[in-house]
């Protein structure tokens, strides 16, 4: 066979392999980074008379490469800490359309749940669901999908699944 | 590698019946002259052993004796045809003769050497398969549907400002409680003359215990976001009340 033709074919094959490996690597190691901070006002209806207790929640979502971290910080109305839940895990998928990040939480650290003061319902519920999944499946999967975002104005309205929670967040550059 | 009368020698295939040596890489064929044929046959018959020059040039029933120089030239020609990569297969053992090496490394399987094109095509097919898989993966990922609003209602305030309320749900059924909440909130906003909010996103958690309100708007050219999350674990739920609307001041 003509040597030039062989070289041509080999070069073509090499290019295809390089492209394939690059695409595979990008799929397996998403390079897109996500950093956002979401603050919420929490209102818990109490059993007695339906009175409302108020708390604040700050959720920091950080994802880079394969690493993902979600930090839930709860505060009392006076600004004191009401507890923390820090989750760490992997980015299991990044989708361009819809703009969606999937996370697989592997570990979590909690503080403030044992205190004598009743913790925010949101925190107790999040703690219960994540513990249930981590104990049974060894992971707690969740996704964050952008419903509306504007990088110029640094905001994103997202929906967390499977909890079906809409939330407005600040994008951290 | 020996297959009946066909033998593989480096990158060449030797057909003893046809007295032919063929370079499988280039496709070049060589009809072996008597001296080269005799030398090659004898070396193959004694592969791995040293064969003396006089033995390689021995006469047979049909042919006369070959001179030492004829044997030397035949070996040279054979080596030339084998090419620089494989000429070492025929070794010169000084003062004793020649030896055909039993170097198994040089004996490539037929499927590998013979149809190099096939090997190249196989790699090509592999590459394309990987690409197709990637494209399929992309298509699969692309098929991941974006979340659409379950319900979207517009509300015009007394100032003429328009407010859009959008509700989101995973389920297409059993959304009555969410739609009731949308109406209640809509009634609350109706009381506002104006508001910095333009879009209101609403969702009820999958267990219907948490009602999420996200309000988005603009103030002095800056985007403004406010999240309200109401939890009610009671049997008879009442997420929204007039007192709560006043307390949070949704009109701002």
Model description:
Chain A: Keywords: Membrane, Transmembrane, Transmembrane helix. With 173 residues, chain A is α+β, with helices and mostly antiparallel strands. Helices cover 25% and strands 50% of the residues of chain A. Chain A has two helices and eight strands. Chain A is elongated. Chain A folds into two domains: 1-29; 34-171, no CATH class. Chain A has helices spanning 3-28, 121-137, and strands spanning 34-45, 52-64, 67-76, 81-95, 100-111, 140-150, 155-161, 165-171. Chain B is of the alpha+beta class. Chain B has two domains: 2-116, Arc Repressor Mutant, subunit A; 151-248. Helices cover 33% and strands 27% of the residues of chain B. In chain B, the strands form three sheets. Chain B has a five-stranded antiparallel beta sheet with strand order 1-2-3-4-5, with no helix packed on it. In chain B, β4 and β5 form a beta hairpin. The longest helix of chain B is centred in the middle third of the chain and has 27 residues, at 116-142. β1 (34-45) of chain A pairs parallel with β13 (222-232) of chain B.
Short description:
The complex is a heterodimer of chains A (173) and B (252). Chain A is α+β, with helices and mostly antiparallel strands.
Measured by residues with Cβ under 8 Å of the partner chain's Cβ, the largest interface is: A-B, 53 and 56 residues
Overall radius of gyration of chain B = 44 Å
The biggest sheet of chain B, with number of strands, parallel, antiparallel or mixed sense and barrel status, is: 5 strands, antiparallel
The CATH architecture of the largest domain in chain B can be given as Orthogonal Bundle
Rounded to the nearest angstrom, the radius of gyration of chain A is 22 Å
Estimated helix fraction of chain B? 25-40%
H/E element string of chain A? HEEEEEHEEE
Anisotropy-based shape of chain B? rod-shaped
User: For the record, what is the CATH homologous superfamily label of the largest domain in chain B?
Assistant: Winged helix-like DNA-binding domain superfamily/Winged helix DNA-binding domain
Proportion of residues in extended strands of chain B: 25-35%
CATH top level assignment of the largest domain in chain B: Mainly Alpha
- Count the helices of chain B. How many? 7
Cα distance spanning the termini of chain B:
89 Å
Widest sheet, order of strands of chain B: 1-2-3-4-5
- Could you name the ranges of chain A where pLDDT drops below 50 across 5 or more consecutive residues? none
The major sheet of chain A is characterized as: 8 strands, antiparallel, barrel
Run of helices and strands of chain B = EEEEEHEHHEEHHEEHEEEH
Number of E strands of chain A? 8
Transmembrane segments (chain A): 6-25
Keywords (chain A): Membrane, Transmembrane, Transmembrane helix
């Amino acid at each position: 066979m003509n040597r030039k033709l062989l070289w041509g074919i080999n070069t073509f094959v090499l290019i295809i392999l390089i492209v394939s490996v690059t695409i595979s690597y990008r799929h397996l190691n998403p390079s897109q980074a996500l950093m956002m901070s979401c603050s919420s006002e929490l209102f818990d209806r109490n059993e007695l008379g339906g009175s409302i207790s108020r708390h604040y929640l700050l959720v920091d979502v950080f994802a880079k490469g394969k690493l993902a971290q979600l930090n839930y910080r709860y505060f009392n109305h006076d600004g004191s800490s009401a507890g923390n839940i820090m989750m760490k895990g992997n980015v299991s998928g990044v989708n361009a359309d819809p703009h969606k990040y999937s996370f697989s939480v592997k570990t979590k650290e909690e503080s403030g749940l044992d205190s004598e003061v009743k913790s925010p319902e949101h925190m107790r519920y999040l703690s219960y669901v994540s513990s249930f999944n981590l104990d049974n499946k060894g992971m707690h999967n969740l996704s964050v999908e952008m419903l509306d975002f504007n990088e110029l104005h640094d905001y994103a309205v997202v929906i967390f699944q499977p909890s079906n929670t809409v939330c407005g967040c600040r994008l951290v550059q | 590698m020996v297959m009946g009368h066909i033998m593989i020698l480096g990158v060449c295939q030797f057909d003893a019946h046809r007295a032919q040596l063929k370079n499988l890489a280039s496709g070049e064929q060589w009809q072996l002259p008597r001296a080269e044929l005799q030398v090659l046959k004898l070396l193959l018959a004694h592969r791995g052993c040293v064969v003396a020059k006089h033995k390689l040039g021995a006469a047979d029933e049909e042919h006369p004796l070959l001179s030492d120089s004829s044997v030397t030239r035949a070996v040279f020609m054979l080596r030339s045809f084998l090419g620089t990569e494989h000429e070492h297969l025929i070794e010169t053992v000084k003062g004793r003769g020649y030896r055909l090496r039993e170097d198994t490394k040089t004996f490539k399987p037929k499927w590998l050497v013979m149809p190099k094109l096939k090997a190249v095509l196989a790699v090509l097919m592999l590459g394309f398969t990987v690409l197709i898989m990637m494209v399929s993966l992309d298509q699969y990922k692309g098929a991941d549907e974006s979340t659409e609003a379950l319900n979207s209602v517009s509300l015009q305030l007394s100032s003429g400002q328009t407010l859009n309320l959008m509700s989101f749900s995973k389920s297409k059924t059993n959304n009555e409680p969410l739609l009731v909440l949308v109406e209640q909130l809509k009634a609350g906003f109706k009381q506002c003359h104006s508001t910095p909010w333009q879009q209101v996103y609403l969702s009820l958690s999958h267990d219907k215990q948490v009602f999420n309100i996200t309000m988005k708007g603009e103030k002095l050219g800056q985007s403004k976001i406010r999240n309200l999350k109401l939890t009610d674990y009671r049997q008879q739920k009442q997420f929204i009340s007039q007192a709560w609307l006043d307390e949070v001041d949704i009109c701002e």
